[in-house]
Design brief:
Blueprint: E1 2-8, E2 15-20, H1 24-41, H2 55-58
Antiparallel strand pairs: 1-2
């Protein structure tokens, strides 16, 4: 139930966004990914989940060139 991943971070690196369903299977798979990262790097991953309310809360900005 994990759908994909993308390395991100705006040049700073070290950030991976993982898209998945909100299911127990996806949670288990995601935990395996985090555990393997810890084994490989000897570092604990900083994990956060969910998303902000985005433009619903903050509005949008239009840039006209």
């Amino acid at each position: 139930d994990l759908l994909g991943a993308k390395i991100t971070g705006g040049g700073a690196g070290g950030t991976v966004a993982i898209l998945g369903k909100n299911t127990p299977q996806a949670q288990t798979a995601f935990q395996r990914v985090a555990e393997r990262y810890q084994q490989w790097s000897n570092e604990d991953a900083y994990l956060f989940e969910g998303s902000s309310p985005g433009c619903d809360a903050f509005g949008i900005h239009s840039i006209v060139f």
